[in-house]
């Protein structure tokens, strides 16, 4: 059976890798929906190559521009509502969520309500609303399939295992671009430095999140929701080669790991094809002799406090996770725009978290309110920091 796929964020790093997978297996996958934010030229190419039935762009002007540039019959929808339409499109079997940030939340909810399986790359959705998403997936009998390489590794290791036998999950981390930098050196490093990720080629936001280790913190939270494992049983291990994508320790002391060269097409393909196993993928094969040695170390919480913020906030729950994510989105963006320094990212997040009054078991509206509050508050924090420098 051919699976119909909708891709939210098809012009991005995950989106284009997914289309590459799909084009190699046209007997397995068919594209029905695509969305771009503003990269019209790439979307035009994708429309001509993959013939989706529905596409989404950010604004009416972009929709008019897009219509002029395409010769194919396709429904064009707009903005957040449009994103939700593509996510829940009637013919879709699997929705791949590959937009950045909380923008993925509402479309994921709509897709679940429409009983679509979710291949989830957009980890921020699970960070801010893990409980809600899990519940909706259960109610609607939908699969939540991990695309993030670490979670795909764990998911692959769990094949045929009883999840209740997990005693510990070990999430590996490259350590990001600043793995070996001192706090003193970090003060003067800028966005160009942060974007030089040692092993993975990804979108800018997530690459900066790797440099702060906020990404790893989000992945700990993501692992908690995907695999129902308490935070105290999730460990992070710095492994600079990014060859072991993550490990599970079971209650009999056995440890299973998944290895491979870093290439997101593997996890994407595994998720899209689930539960039908593995498909060919012509990528460089892992040669352990090329490495000779693999390295492991504990994360340094003093140099990278954002990882601990995630454990703290994950355990607290309530609206804290939404605040963590929002403050990070604001600070990450302003760092990328060269408005603030690298170390001001963690400072902004800490100050915003400390000022928040959390609500327990929040509903969607309360999560979105906390998100709005934290965005405004963290802007204010940054403005005050900038004023104090003048
Ligand atoms: P990217 O920046 O390369 O692409 C993002 C895509 O989403 C683009 O198509 C863009 O047009 C669209 N988009 C961005 N903001 C949007 C908004 N507000 N509304 C609608 N569309 C929007 O990002 P990426 O690296 O592909 O990452 C996508 C998601 O996948 C992130 O949540 C990231 O953390 C996660 N992820 C990425 C990788 C990777 O290798 N790139 C690995 C694991 C997880
Ligand atoms: Mg990852």
From TrEMBL:
One of its GO terms (biological process) is isopentenyl diphosphate biosynthetic process, methylerythritol 4-phosphate pathway involved in terpenoid biosynthetic process. The keyword Oxidoreductase applies. InterPro entries: DXP_reductoisomerase, DXP_reductoisomerase_C, DXP_reductoisomerase_N, DXPR_C, DXPR_C_sf, NAD(P)-bd_dom_sf. Its cofactor is Mg(2+); Mn(2+). GO terms for molecular function: 1-deoxy-D-xylulose-5-phosphate reductoisomerase activity; isomerase activity; manganese ion binding; NADPH binding. Pathway: Isoprenoid biosynthesis; isopentenyl diphosphate biosynthesis via DXP pathway; isopentenyl diphosphate from 1-deoxy-D-xylulose 5-phosphate: step 1/6. 1-deoxy-D-xylulose 5-phosphate binds at residues 123, 149-150, 174, 197, 215-216, 219. Pfam families: DXP_redisom_C, DXP_reductoisom, DXPR_C. NADPH binds at residues 11-14, 39, 122, 124, 203. It catalyses: 2-C-methyl-D-erythritol 4-phosphate + NADP(+) = 1-deoxy-D-xylulose 5-phosphate + NADPH + H(+). SUPFAM superfamilies: 1-deoxy-D-xylulose-5-phosphate reductoisomerase, C-terminal domain, Glyceraldehyde-3-phosphate dehydrogenase-like, C-terminal domain, NAD(P)-binding Rossmann-fold domains. Catalyzes the NADPH-dependent rearrangement and reduction of 1-deoxy-D-xylulose-5-phosphate (DXP) to 2-C-methyl-D-erythritol 4-phosphate (MEP). PANTHER family: 1-DEOXY-D-XYLULOSE 5-PHOSPHATE REDUCTOISOMERASE (PTHR30525), 1-DEOXY-D-XYLULOSE 5-PHOSPHATE REDUCTOISOMERASE, CHLOROPLASTIC (PTHR30525:SF0). This is 1-deoxy-D-xylulose 5-phosphate reductoisomerase.
């Amino acid at each position: 059976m051919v699976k119909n796929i909708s891709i939210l964020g098809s012009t991005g790093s995950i989106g284009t890798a997914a289309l590459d997978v799909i084009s190699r297996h046209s007997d397995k996958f068919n594209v029905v929906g695509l969305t771009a934010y503003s990269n019209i030229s790439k979307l035009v190419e994708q429309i001509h190559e993959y013939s989706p039935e529905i596409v989404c762009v950010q604004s009416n002007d972009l929709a008019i521009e897009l219509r002029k540039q395409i010769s194919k019959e396709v429904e064009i929808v707009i903005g957040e509502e449009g994103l939700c339409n593509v996510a829940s499109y009637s013919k879709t079997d699997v929705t791949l969520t590959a937009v950045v940030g909380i923008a993925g939340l509402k479309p994921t909810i709509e897709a679940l309500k429409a009983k679509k399986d979710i291949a989830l790359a957009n980890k921020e959705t699970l960070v801010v609303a893990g409980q809600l998403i899990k519940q909706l997936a259960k109610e609607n009998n939908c699969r939540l399939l991990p695309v993030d390489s670490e979670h795909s590794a764990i998911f692959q290791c769990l094949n045929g295992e009883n999840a209740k036998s997990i005693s510990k999950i070990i999430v590996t981390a490259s350590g990001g671009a600043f793995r070996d930098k001192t706090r003193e050196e970090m003060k003067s490093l800028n966005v160009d430095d942060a974007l030089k990720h040692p092993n993975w080629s990804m979108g800018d936001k997530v690459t900066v999140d790797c440099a702060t280790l906020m990404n790893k913190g989000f992945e700990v939270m993501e692992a908690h929701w995907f695999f129902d494992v308490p935070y105290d049983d999730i460990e992070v291990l710095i492994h600079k080669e990014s060859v072991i994508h993550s490990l599970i320790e079971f209650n009999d002391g056995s440890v299973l790991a998944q290895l491979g060269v870093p290439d997101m097409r593997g996890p994407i393909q595994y998720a899209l094809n689930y539960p039908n196993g593995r498909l060919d993928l012509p990528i460089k094969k892992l040669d352990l002799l090329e490495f000779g040695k693999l390295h492991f170390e504990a994360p340094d919480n003093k140099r990278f406090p954002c990882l601990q913020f995630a454990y703290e906030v994950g355990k607290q729950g309530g609206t804290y996770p939404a605040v963590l994510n929002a403050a990070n989105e604001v600070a990450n963006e302003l760092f990328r725009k060269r408005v603030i320094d690298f170390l001001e990212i963690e400072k902004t997040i800490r100050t915003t978290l400390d000022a928040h009054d959390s609500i327990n078991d929040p509903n969607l509206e309360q999560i979105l309110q906390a998100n709005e509050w934290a965005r405004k508050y963290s802007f204010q924090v940054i403005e005050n920091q900038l004023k104090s420098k003048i």
